[in-house]
Design goal:
Blueprint lengths: L11 E7 L10 H17 L3 E7 L3 E7 L6 H20 L11 E5 L4 H9 L1 H9 L7 H12 L6 H4 L11 H5 L5 H17 L2 H10 L1
Helix pairs in contact: 1-2, 3-9, 5-8
Length: about 210
Amino acid sequence: MRQSRDFYKGGFWHVLNRGVAKEEIFREKEDFMFYLYKVKEFLKKYPVAIHAYNLLFNHLHHLIEQNSDIPPSKFIGSLHSSFGLHTNQKYSRVGHLFQDRFKAKPLDKNALLPVSLYINLNKILEKLEHLNKTKISKREVDELLKEAERDPWSSYPVYLGLREDGITQTKFILSLISDDIKKAQQEYRKLAKQFLVSGYFLKTRDLLFE
């Protein structure tokens, strides 16, 4: 049964899209760069707000808010059609780049902070899932988080104030932590570690994929 698309102004959604047949969406650095360039381009046409994102080789996540009468489906559909056409031309491929239509999970405001963490830390969660370990040390978690801080293809460094990307709007979610942005950024880093160590990401994942 296809998912209902009841988009509305003021709503928030977790958007997920994968490569067709688990094919890679991004093959090299320039593909990631071009995708983010197209995001900025289409944000000028479709005024949605992106509160978090993460680009992985064969799938991607966005936390999107609809802040006008134009639904996020217009933004994502146009963005991915344009990027898919570019990719097909670049790599001499044919057919759809993305698997079916994107998934959009509606979110209430209580879920925004943990979902932003889930998205921002998704590469770490993927690595943890594939590690053949029953436990992971705090040192290993710290190393993974440091790696995430250097990730140019996610909004995690933006949340920590380490860089600006011209895409991510962090103030609303950080304000859920503190009105002092610097304090909120510091606390967000602590929450990221707690999110992983406590296993709370499992509850968030269940929320998104129930």
